[in-house]
């Protein structure tokens, strides 16, 4: 565990785990019964904790991932949340280098925080002066300079304010997948369940692109499509085209698995 550029105090500002340490490879739960519902590349994988597009190639293919999204207005009970992230790996390679924005319903309303994670190292957060509000257009990019070192760039396209962070880890990336996702995060390593998924409306990643070690670029088309399923309820609807990934929140039906209530 090594964050040579990161003051410890920054790590403690926020507590969440963006990668479910027990889920194994991110697309481990493949529900063939739902295969026909929303079929973009031969089927959907369903997980409890994340939804979006995962582009898979051979080791060493990806060095960078970028995407731009508008910060959604979220709703739900206090403690409900979600995160919009772009990242490298997390599939067959258990390390993940990712960054984006965590959304959280607090007692004083929704809160947004710009974060990065080189899983399994702890989450890092950008300083509080990088404030993010619903409606802001955020461009986030992670790029690995080598297997254990990289750069996170986050930019508010609404006012051009930007922040960067260098990150190092002892956990080598493989560069075999790139993803644009919405995650239902865990509060800590011992959480058995993710936080209640906030109603995030939709997160649309535009200018979605992954880059290779040379000048090669890849769009999200051809990705594995992943959805969030909890208690038998399908909570997302994902679609992909050449340069965008759309993750829509789907309200659970009936009382079981009901999230956002009480308004
Ligand atoms: C979300 O807000 C709740 C309530 O204020 C807090 O307990 C929790 O730690 C926050 N979660 C994150 C990931 O910031
Ligand atoms: C935000 O705070 C950091 C230090 O925590 C500082 O380096 C940076 O310049 C500040 N940015 C703005 C826009 O004030
Ligand atoms: C992003 O830009 C919007 C619009 O100017 C502003 O309200 C918001 O505070 C900005 N956020 C950051 C992090 O600069
Ligand atoms: C997002 O930021 C990256 C890195 O700075 C840049 O290469 C890319 O052009 C930006 N994308 C948009 C849509 O502004
Ligand atoms: C990886 O890149 C970082 C930053 O450029 C550098 O400090 C480090 O020595 C490099 N590591 C290896 C193994 O090349
Ligand atoms: C991909 O890279 C990882 C880490 O470098 C390695 O453990 C794994 O065996 C590689 N997989 C293949 C198929 O080469
Ligand atoms: C971890 O999160 C769970 C909720 O998922 C909470 O009950 C528990 O107190 C937390 N543990 C620590 C050490 O913060
Ligand atoms: C990448 O593109 C730049 C500018 O077109 C070119 O100078 C460079 O040689 C290219 N690099 C590779 C590895 O193809
Ligand atoms: C996703 O949306 C499409 C139409 O946009 C619809 O046909 C499909 O049934 C939806 N799938 C799920 C799982 O909600």
Automatic annotation (TrEMBL):
Entries under Pfam families matching the protein: Peptidase_A4
Signal peptide: 1-19
Active site per UniProt: 183 (proton acceptor)
Protein name: Peptidase A4 family-domain-containing protein
UniProt keywords, alphabetically: Signal
Gene Ontology biological process: proteolysis
CDD domains listed in its UniProt record: Peptidase_G1
Record-level Gene Ontology MF annotations: glutamic-type endopeptidase activity
């Amino acid at each position: 565990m090594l964050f040579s550029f990161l003051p410890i105090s920054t790590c403690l500002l926020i507590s969440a785990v963006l990668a479910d340490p027990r889920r194994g490879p991110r697309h481990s739960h493949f529900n063939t019964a739902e295969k026909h519902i929303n079929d973009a590349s031969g089927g959907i994988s369903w997980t409890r904790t994340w939804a979006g597009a995962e582009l898979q190639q051979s080791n060493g293919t990806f060095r960078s991932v970028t995407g731009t999204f508008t910060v959604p207005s979220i709703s739900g009970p206090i403690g409900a949340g979600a995160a919009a992230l772009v990242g490298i790996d997390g599939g067959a390679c258990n390390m993940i280098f990712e960054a984006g924005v965590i959304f959280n319903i607090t007692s004083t309303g929704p809160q947004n925080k710009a974060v990065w994670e080189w899983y399994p190292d702890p989450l890092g957060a950008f300083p509080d002066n990088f404030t993010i509000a619903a409606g802001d257009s955020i461009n986030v990019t992670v790029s690995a300079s080598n297997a254990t070192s990289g750069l996170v760039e986050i930019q508010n396209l609404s006012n051009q304010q930007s922040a960067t962070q260098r990150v190092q880890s002892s956990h080598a990336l493989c560069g075999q997948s790139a993803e644009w996702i919405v995650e239902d995060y865990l509060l800590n390593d011992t959480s058995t369940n993710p936080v209640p998924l906030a109603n995030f409306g939709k997160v649309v990643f535009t200018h979605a692109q992954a880059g290779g070690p040379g000048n090669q670029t890849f769009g999200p088309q051809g990705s594995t499509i992943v959805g969030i399923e909890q208690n038998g309820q399908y909570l997302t609807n994902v679609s992909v085209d050449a340069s965008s990934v759309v993750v829509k929140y789907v309200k659970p039906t009936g009382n079981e698995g009901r999230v956002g209530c009480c308004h």
